[in-house]
Amino acid sequence: MKTVLKKFAFIAFSSIAFVSCNNAKDAKVVENKESEIITKTSSPNIILFVADDHGIDALGAYGNTVIQTPNLDKLATEGTKYTNAYCTSASCAASRSVILTGKFGHATGSYGHVHDYHHFSTYDSITSLPVLLSKAGYETARIGKYHVAPEKVYHFNTVLEANPRNTVEMANKCASVLKSDKPFFLYFCTDDPHRGQPFNPEEWDTPNSFGNKKEGYKDVETVTYDPKDVLVPSFLPDTKQTREEIAQYYQSISRIDQGFGKLMQMLKAEGKDKNTIVIYISDNGMAFPGAKTSVHEPGIKLPCIIKDPSVKTTGITSEAMVSWVDLTPTILDMAKVDYNKNKFHGTSFNSTVGKEEKGDFTEIYASHTFHEITMYYPMRVVRSGNYKLIWNIAYRLEYPFASDLWASSTWQSVYRTDQEYFGPKKVKDFLFRPEFEMYNLEKDPNELDNLAYKKDFKNKVENLKAKLKAFQTKTADPWSIMWNHDASLQGTGVNL
Fold first, then answer.
1. 189 catalytic per annotation
2. What is the pTM of this model?
3. Which of 11, 40, 105, 484 could cross-link with 94 by S-S, CB 3.0 to 4.6 Å?
């Protein structure tokens, strides 16, 4: 009898083991180098679509009645649109490093641009999102603008090549990824609507092309705009030159929209649309003075639209304050990948998708240090509720310009004619900023009334300063020593 029972037990155990091995295709356990266990079951595909210099000013879903963005507008009706989504640094490379690491750039060495003579690069000790997802069994692929370094930190299994100004061509090149038998993470990054070369035109008042060409792009319908019809954001001067450049900017965005639509068509044709999370964001605000490279709202408050087919409520507008430093933990959460939350500065906001409530997401931080290496102007930001505090650490310096923004006809139209105002702000106030700026964004969305030095707001200012200091300590910000202008913490510079 005992022998029979032993044989039965052995057969039962063998059967369970066999079934478990077969189920391993659907559920994998992977151990990473930090000895964390990552469990993955029925993982969704994820597409992270990142535009280059696209603000919330130029999307139909965010209230622009002129621009034609039907495919992105449809995504908003099918998902959740965030109206308080922020990058942490209004500069391409620095922002992208945060998107893919879940850490602020001041803690990873990603202070500014990686290319040409700038040389900023992420510490090789950092583990990025694509690496974590690959270890969890994902096929990871990227196409278009990369703009981060080193490659071993930001490694993708597959690198696809296409013209980053032609999003339709880019979409077509992604066909093999969409057919993957494994769950995939596709990082789709356009060059649009970044300003196009040359940044310095022969005639100063020639509008930048924003990548547009007279002959257009293959398989892309050229959508043009009349400068008189465009909507000039309130922070910009309403001049002929500004309107001409915004018309070019709109055209570039309409090209993005077509490529996005093509990618969604392909996804549906593969039968993957019901198990693919789609996220649309931009790296920073529009490439105009007062937005890109600035931590004022036009520079860091950005579009964020998320469609998760598993979330049944659609067409939601969320006021939750979310940040690009939250994206890596959010995507890991969406991918059902277990991770050590303490290894990231951000927090997953997956729980807010499909909900109008803010939940605990009522505060964001920003940290900008460089754009180009010649543009040293560190700024730290906290927004808590309706109040926003900006610390201009190098406030004694003239505010620096990105080379493409300085050469823009929008700026030159004011600079060459010695105008007193650039939009609603005086030029002198645009160029020379106080050490602290504090605004009530509910009452003053254009950030014109600086409350930082008003007696009635002293306690609020001190409260936000305390939050900034705690944030800098928590995230190992080297610039925290500047509160007391104490250089003693910098060390001797001598290796002993």
1. no
2. 0.90
3. 105
